[in-house]
Design a protein that fits this description.
Largest sheet: 2 strands, antiparallel
Distance between the termini: 37 Å
Shape: globular
Helix content: over 70%
Strand order of the largest sheet: 1-2
């Protein structure tokens, strides 16, 4: 056997659990930001995840300071891919339903393609360009009905989700061009520490001093911090060592669709024709854009798992 056929069953199960954990996290975060201010929620989330991953690495005797070169990656990824993504998606979820939000937030690969062509001199195939165009049509299909009705204050939320997706894409493109001194897992708690350091003063400035957290907020954080952030980052690094990048990318495409189904079942989110069509177009576009479309020129080999989300960042 070769390739993914040789992957043990436990790692296949781990990939499936990862997708499920992230899908569930979207409605959970929706519940959380209804009781905890969105930026504070992101801050608490990364405090919990930072402690969990520092403890995990310390138990494995793998805890170490990043090198000078890796600190640049840690800072950019912590600010954009973790802190920025979490704050923007959390704020958007105070307005939009989680299923719809997850689809737009996971449109990141659509922005990676042109950014990689510009920043890394990657040659982009016609199929990839077609995929980006189809994906963007899906984004418009999801957002257009609400905007046509006047938006009901939703336009800024859609802009936040697209901004979060773009921030994640910028981080991914930077990671692709970075030569790692340490593993992505070893750098993860430091990235989360940077995200916490960014979100704490931002939360104080925008949302004021923290208040007591009720039972729903505690439950949401108890899921999102240890599971959807700390565990999920370890899991994505672990499966990244076992599966081809294309396999992981396709598996992760199921996350927003599954999140939409879970949101519909648990929170009563309406799945309209435009939303279903948009989900299909976005998924098809991402599939075309990432299916062996880019040929890097002078690109360094990096751990592929480092380009994947650490949660719905990942929300």
């Amino acid at each position: 056997m070769s390739g993914d056929d040789a992957v043990p069953r436990r790692h296949r199960l781990l990939l499936a659990v990862l997708v499920l954990v992230w899908a569930i996290s979207w409605p959970v975060i929706k519940v959380g930001v209804a009781t905890v201010p969105a930026i504070w929620f992101g801050c608490y989330r990364y405090v919990i995840a930072t402690v969990c991953l520092f403890g995990f690495l310390a138990a494995r005797n793998e805890l170490a300071l990043p090198s000078r070169s890796d600190w640049k990656l840690v800072t950019i990824s912590g600010v954009l891919q973790m802190g920025g993504f979490s704050a923007l998606t959390g704020l958007a979820l105070t307005v939009l339903p989680p299923g719809r939000a997850s689809v737009l937030a996971f449109s990141t690969p659509l922005w990676v393609v042109p950014l990689a062509a510009w920043r890394l001199d990657e040659r982009i195939s016609k199929r990839a360009m077609l995929g980006v165009a189809i994906g963007l049509l899906g984004v418009l299909a999801i957002a257009a009905p609400a905007l046509q009705r006047g938006g009901h204050g939703q336009a800024p939320a859609y802009a936040m989700l697209l901004g979060a997706s773009a921030a994640w894409a910028i981080s991914i493109v930077f990671v692709r061009g970075h030569r790692f001194d340490a593993s992505p897992l070893a750098l993860a708690p430091w990235q989360m520490l940077v995200a916490t350091a960014m979100l704490l003063p931002l939360a104080l400035l925008v949302e004021g001093r923290p208040h007591a957290i009720d039972a729903r907020g505690i439950a949401a954080l108890a899921y999102v911090g240890p599971l959807a952030t700390a565990f999920a980052y370890w899991a994505v690094v672990e499966v990244g060592r076992r599966f081809r990048a294309s396999t992981i990318s396709m598996a992760l495409l199921a996350t927003p669709s599954l999140g939409l189904v879970i949101s519909a079942l648990t929170l009563g989110e309406t799945v309209s024709g435009s939303l279903a069509g948009g989900v299909t177009l976005v998924a098809a576009g991402i599939r075309l854009a990432t299916m062996g479309s880019a040929i890097a020129r002078g690109r360094r080999d990096v751990p592929r798992s480092a380009t994947l989300p650490a949660g719905p960042r990942r929300a």
